[in-house]
C-alpha cells in the first residue's frame, strides 16, 4: 500500500480532445466544494488533436499555489504519457489506468493499479465517458462529496440535455465507487485534512482575475484580436458583457484593436487591450501615439516564448525588454506584473487609475502559467478598489498640453466643457496645435520624458519583502514566480534567506536600492538573459550576483528552484 499525507499532486494526461480540461474543471470544483485546498495548472501542445496534454492538481491540507515536479497519482488516457512525464515519476508514484496505456519499461518502477476505464465507459454508453469516470475515481480516493460532483455535472452539461447529464452522473458514480473501493482494499491510502473555509471560497484562474480586475477598475470597453495565452481574458469579458454593461470588440487585427482603445479613452471610456508578444509588436506605432498624445491606455500582455510564433502554448517571462523599450521616441510607461491571482485582480483594477492619472501607457505583464493557473482563495475585498478619474472640465482657455512642474497636463474629454479638446500625434504647443518651434519642442520633450517620469518614479510603490530584513541572501522575483520561489525557500526553514518580489517593474522607486545593501542577490527568472536583473543594474546600479534562469517553455517547479539555489545559498 502507498500512503499519501497532507499534500498530493495528481496528474492526468492524454491527447488533445480527450477531455483533460474537463477533468480538471470537475476535480478542482468538486474537491474545493468538498472542503479541500486545490491548485491546478495545465500544459498543452499547440495542436488541435494528438500530442500529450497534462494537468496537475494539488490537493492539500494547507493553501498551495505553486507547481511541483513530483507526481503522486498519475492517470494516463493514452500511451506516451509516462515517457512524457518520466522525469517527474518516482518509485512512490501510483499509476491508475489501463495496462495498454503504460509502457512496459515503467511497470517495475511504479505502483500500478489496473482499472478497466474503457470497459466502464462503454458500459455507460461511450468511450467519451472515460474522463468523467477518471474524475470520479479521484473524487472517491479523496472521499469527496458525491453531491458536489453531481451538482457540478448538472451545471456543466445542463445545456446539452437531461440524457447527457444523467450519463455523466452514471459515469462519475462508477468511478467514485471504484475510488472508494481502492481505499477500502488498501491499494492506496490518502489522508488530507479538509479546510472548511475552502468550501465557501472562490475558485479563479489568472485570466478570469485579470478580467474581473479590469471590470472593478471601471473598464467599459475591451478590444482584442485573439492570441494565446491572452484570449481567455477577452472571452471571460465577452461572456459577462451584458452582466456588466460593457462592450467587447474583436477587431480585425491588433493595430485596429489598440487604435479603437485609444479613441475610446479620448472619448472618455476606460479601455483595455489584451494580447500577447507577437500582437503587441504590431501595436507599437500606436503605443508611440499614446506617448505623444499623452492618451491613457491599458494593455494586458500575456507572455509566451518567442521570437516569432515560438512556443504558442508555453510560458516564459521574456517580454519585459519588449514592453520596456517598445515604441519610437522617448516617453514613459508603467509596467506591472502580478505575482498571483489576487494581484492579477487588484493590479488590473489599479492600472486604470494609473493610466488616467499619469496619462501614460500602463502595461500588465502576465504569462501562460499565471493565465492557466487555478486555486481557491478568499473573496476579493472590493472596498479596496476605487475608481479614480482625473478628467477636468474644458473651460475657456483650456490647454490640453499645459507645461507643468510634474509633467502631468489637465485632460478633458470632448463634450465636457465649452472649449475644444485636441489630441495630437505631432509635436504640439500647449493647446495641442502642431508646432516645430525648437524651444517649445525641447520643453515638451522634457515634460513628457523627464518630469512626468520622475513624478511616476517617486510615487512608485516599493517591492514586497518576505522574510527578515537582515537576511544574508535576497532572492529577487517578479511576476508569476512568486509562490513557487516562496514555497521553495520555506522548505529548508532558514531565516537568512528572504524573498523580494516585484509586481511594479518600471519605473523603480530609487528607495528600492536599500533592500540590497550588503546582501548576496539572486535573481530567479523565467527567461534566457535575466531581463529584470539587467533592469536592476540599469535603473538602480544593483549588481545581481547569481541568476537562476529557466527558458524551456515550462514553469519553474518548487524542486527546480531548490536545485538552482544549491551551491549558491551556502
Automatic annotation (TrEMBL):
The protein's enzyme class: oxidoreductase
Substrates-to-products reaction catalysed: 2 oxidized [2Fe-2S]-[ferredoxin] + 2-oxoglutarate + CoA = succinyl-CoA + 2 reduced [2Fe-2S]-[ferredoxin] + CO2 + H(+)
EC number annotated for this UniProt entry: 1.2.7.3
One GO BP: sulfur compound biosynthetic process
Domain Pyruvate/ketoisovalerate oxidoreductase catalytic residue range list: 16-177
A Pfam short name: POR
CDD domains: TPP_PYR_PFOR_IOR-alpha_like (cd07034)
Coiled-coil parts of chain: none
Gene3D superfamilies, A to Z: 3.40.50.920, 3.40.50.970, Pyruvate-ferredoxin oxidoreductase, PFOR, domain III (3.40.920.10)
InterPro entries assigned to the protein according to its UniProt record, in alphabetical order: 2-oxoacid/accept_OxRdtase_asu (IPR022367), Pyruvate:ferred/Flavod_OxRd (IPR050722), Pyrv/ketoisovalerate_OxRed_cat (IPR019752), Pyrv_Fd/Flavodoxin_OxRdtase_N (IPR002880), Pyrv_flavodox_OxRed_cen (IPR002869), THDP-binding (IPR029061), Transketo_C/PFOR_II (IPR009014)
Entry keyword set: Oxidoreductase
Record's keyword annotation contains Repressor: no
UniProt-recorded name of the protein: 2-oxoglutarate synthase subunit KorA
All copies of domain Pyruvate flavodoxin/ferredoxin oxidoreductase pyrimidine binding, residue ranges: 213-444
Classification of source organism: Archaea, Methanobacteriati, Methanobacteriota, Thermococci, Thermococcales
Annotated organism of origin: Thermococcus piezophilus
Single GO term (MF): 2-oxoglutarate synthase activity
SUPFAM superfamilies on file: Pyruvate-ferredoxin oxidoreductase, PFOR, domain III, Thiamin diphosphate-binding fold (THDP-binding), TK C-terminal domain-like
Subunit structure: Heterotetramer of the KorA, KorB, KorC and KorD subunits.
Amino acid at each position: 500500500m502507498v500512503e499519501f499525507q497532507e499534500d498530493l499532486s495528481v496528474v492526468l494526461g492524454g491527447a488533445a480532445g480527450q477531455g483533460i480540461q474537463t477533468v480538471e474543471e470537475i476535480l478542482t470544483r468538486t474537491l474545493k466544494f468538498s472542503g479541500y485546498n486545490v491548485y491546478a495548472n495545465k500544459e498543452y501542445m499547440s495542436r488541435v488533436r494528438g500530442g500529450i496534454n497534462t494537468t496537475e492538481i494539488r490537493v492539500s491540507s494547507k493553501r498551495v499555489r505553486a507547481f511541483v515536479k513530483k507526481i503522486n497519482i498519475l492517470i494516463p488516457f493514452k500511451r506516451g504519457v509516462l515517457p512524457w512525464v518520466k522525469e517527474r515519476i518516482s518509485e512512490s508514484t501510483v499509476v491508475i489506468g489501463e495496462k495498454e496505456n503504460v509502457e512496459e519499461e515503467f511497470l517495475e518502477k511504479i505502483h500500478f493499479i489496473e482499472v478497466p476505464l474503457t470497459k466502464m465507459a462503454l458500459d455507460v454508453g461511450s468511450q467519451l465517458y472515460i474522463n468523467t469516470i477518471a474524475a470520479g475515481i479521484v473524487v472517491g480516493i479523496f472521499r469527496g462529496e458525491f453531491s458536489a460532483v453531481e451538482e457540478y455535472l448538472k451545471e456543466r452539461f445542463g445545456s446539452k440535455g437531461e440524457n447527457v447529464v444523467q450519463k455523466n452522473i452514471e459515469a462519475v458514480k462508477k468511478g467514485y465507487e471504484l475510488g472508494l473501493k481502492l481505499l477500502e482494499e488498501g491499494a492506496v491510502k490518502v489522508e488530507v485534512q479538509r479546510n472548511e473555509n475552502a468550501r465557501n471560497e472562490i475558485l479563479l484562474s489568472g485570466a478570469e482575475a485579470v478580467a474581473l480586475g479590469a471590470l472593478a477598475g471601471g473598464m467599459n470597453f475591451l478590444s482584442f484580436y485573439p492570441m494565446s495565452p491572452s484570449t481567455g481574458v477577452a472571452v471571460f469579458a465577452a461572456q459577462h458583457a451584458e452582466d456588466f454593461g460593457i462592450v467587447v470588440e474583436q477587431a480585425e487585427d491588433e493595430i485596429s484593436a489598440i487604435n479603437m482603445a485609444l479613441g475610446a479613452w479620448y472619448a472618455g471610456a476606460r479601455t483595455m487591450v489584451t494580447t500577447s508578444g507577437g500582437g503587441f509588436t504590431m501595436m507599437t506605432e500606436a503605443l508611440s501615439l499614446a506617448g505623444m498624445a499623452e492618451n491613457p491606455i491599458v494593455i494586458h500582455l500575456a507572455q509566451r516564448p518567442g521570437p516569432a510564433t515560438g512556443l504558442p502554448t508555453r510560458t516564459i517571462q521574456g517580454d519585459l525588454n519588449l514592453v520596456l523599450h517598445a515604441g519610437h521616441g522617448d516617453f514613459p510607461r508603467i509596467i506591472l506584473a502580478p505575482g498571483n491571482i489576487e494581484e492579477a485582480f487588484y493590479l488590473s483594477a489599479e492600472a486604470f487609475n494609473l493610466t488616467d492619472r499619469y496619462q501614460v501607457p500602463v502595461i500588465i505583464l502576465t504569462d501562460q502559467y499565471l493565465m492557466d493557473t487555478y486555486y481557491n482563495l478568499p473573496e476579493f475585498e472590493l472596498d479596496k478598489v476605487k475608481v479614480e478619474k482625473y478628467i477636468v472640465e474644458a473651460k475657456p482657455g483650456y490647454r490640453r498640453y499645459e507645461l507643468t512642474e510634474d509633467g502631468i497636463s489637465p485632460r478633458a474629454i470632448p463634450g465636457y466643457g465649452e472649449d475644444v479638446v485636441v489630441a495630437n500625434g505631432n509635436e504640439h504647443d500647449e493647446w495641442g496645435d502642431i508646432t516645430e518651434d525648437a524651444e517649445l519642442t525641447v520643453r515638451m520633450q522634457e515634460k513628457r520624458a523627464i518630469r512626468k517620469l520622475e513624478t511616476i518614479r517617486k510615487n512608485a510603490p516599493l517591492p514586497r519583502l518576505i522574510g527578515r530584513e537582515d537576511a544574508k541572501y535576497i532572492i529577487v522575483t517578479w511576476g508569476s514566480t512568486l509562490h513557487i520561489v516562496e514555497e521553495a525557500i520555506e522548505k529548508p526553514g532558514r531565516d537568512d534567506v528572504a524573498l523580494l518580489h516585484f509586481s511594479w517593474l518600471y519605473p523603480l522607486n530609487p528607495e528600492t536600492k536599500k533592500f540590497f545593501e550588503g546582501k548576496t542577490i539572486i535573481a530567479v527568472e523565467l527567461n534566457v538573459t535575466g531581463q529584470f536583473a539587467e533592469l536592476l543594474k540599469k535603473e538602480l546600479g544593483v549588481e545581481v550576483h547569481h541568476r537562476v534562469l529557466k527558458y524551456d517553455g515550462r514553469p519553474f517547479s518548487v524542486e527546480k528552484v531548490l536545485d538552482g539555489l544549491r551551491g549558491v545559498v551556502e
